[in-house]
User: Which sequence fits this backbone?
């Protein structure tokens, strides 16, 4: 017999599938508004059909500590960890944003991966649970939400009990996010750009801030507070990520100001310095983020009064785990 929380999730999934399934025939799931018939094999901006394409599924130890495992993080820091459980990441091929500098370009642009049924996707979720994952972390789920919902329904019916993380680029439609209320446990959006000029140049999306800001407001409405378990691992809530782009710290500070003014300084905020010039990054950002500009943005967040910040104070090398190689069976290099 299923417990009450799982029954509620299954009911929410059924409602969402009823509302969202028409997008398989005329897709308007994201701001691209392609309108393609995915059931007939038509491809829009994301270049995907009705089945999910999995590029990689595995335990991930490099997310924020409250996702990858805070207790594991502390033990590993003192060389006491026996087993690190990690975040149960599932990376999906294709993307509705396709940033020119994407470090995951092999899957977002080149679409390395395997097309799978919803049943197979559900089995991957259950496998991650069996391997000790703290959560099911759906990476780039926006364009794959229908097969994901079908898989979640099967997985819950077969015993899935982990929190589900919606790990997206932030280029979402709030009306679609509304249908995920009661299904998603943790929202993990990137909040990339304030400037429409910058978002147009780097992600072909001059309307990025318009859509991301309204979608994140909806996420905050659904899950305003982060709830941790006894191990310090998130079970519910919203964590906003922001990746600094070299030479654009002023855009970053505008993002922080907007969050403080329109949401709350109690928001869990992850300020990332891990940018590396990848793929088609234009010449003006063919560099890493300088320590000076990163410290400036972190100081701004502190001055605005944000309660919880995740920071990356040290520069990262190209051979570290944050630059994966999805041509390999194990794309991440874990130390």
Assistant:
């Amino acid at each position: 017999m299923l417990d009450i929380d799982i029954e509620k999730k299954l009911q929410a999934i059924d409602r969402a599938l009823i509302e969202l399934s028409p997008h398989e025939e005329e897709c308007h799931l994201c701001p691209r508004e392609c309108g393609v018939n995915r059931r007939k094999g038509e491809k829009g901006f994301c270049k995907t059909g009705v089945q999910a394409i999995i590029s990689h599924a595995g335990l991930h130890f490099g997310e924020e500590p409250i996702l990858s495992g805070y207790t594991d993080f502390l033990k590993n820091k003192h060389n006491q960890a026996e087993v690190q459980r990690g975040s149960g990441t599932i990376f999906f091929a294709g993307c509705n944003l396709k940033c020119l500098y994407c470090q995951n370009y092999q899957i977002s642009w080149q679409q390395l991966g395997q097309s799978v049924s919803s049943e197979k996707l559900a089995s991957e979720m259950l496998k991650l649970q069996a391997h000790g994952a703290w959560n099911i972390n759906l990476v780039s789920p926006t364009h794959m939400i229908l097969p994901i919902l079908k898989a979640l329904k099967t997985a819950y019916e077969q015993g899935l009990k982990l929190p589900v993380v919606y790990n997206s680029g932030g280029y979402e439609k709030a009306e679609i996010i509304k249908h995920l209320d009661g299904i998603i446990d943790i929202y993990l959006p990137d909040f990339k750009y304030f400037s429409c000029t910058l978002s147009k140049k780097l992600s072909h999306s001059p309307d990025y801030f318009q859509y991301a800001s309204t979608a994140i407001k909806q996420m905050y409405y659904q899950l305003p507070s982060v709830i941790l378990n006894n191990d310090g691992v998130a079970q519910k809530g919203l964590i906003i990520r922001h990746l600094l782009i070299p030479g654009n710290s002023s855009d970053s500070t505008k993002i922080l100001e907007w969050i403080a003014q329109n949401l709350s300084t109690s928001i869990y905020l992850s300020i990332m310095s891990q940018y590396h010039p990848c793929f088609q990054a234009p010449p003006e950002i063919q560099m890493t983020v300088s320590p000076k500009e990163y410290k400036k943005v972190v100081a701004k967040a502190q001055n605005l009064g944000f309660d919880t910040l995740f920071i990356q104070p040290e520069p990262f090398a190209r051979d570290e785990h944050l630059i994966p190689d999805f041509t390999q069976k194990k794309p991440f290099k874990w130390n």
About this structure: The longest strand covers residues 234-243. The mean pLDDT is 94.
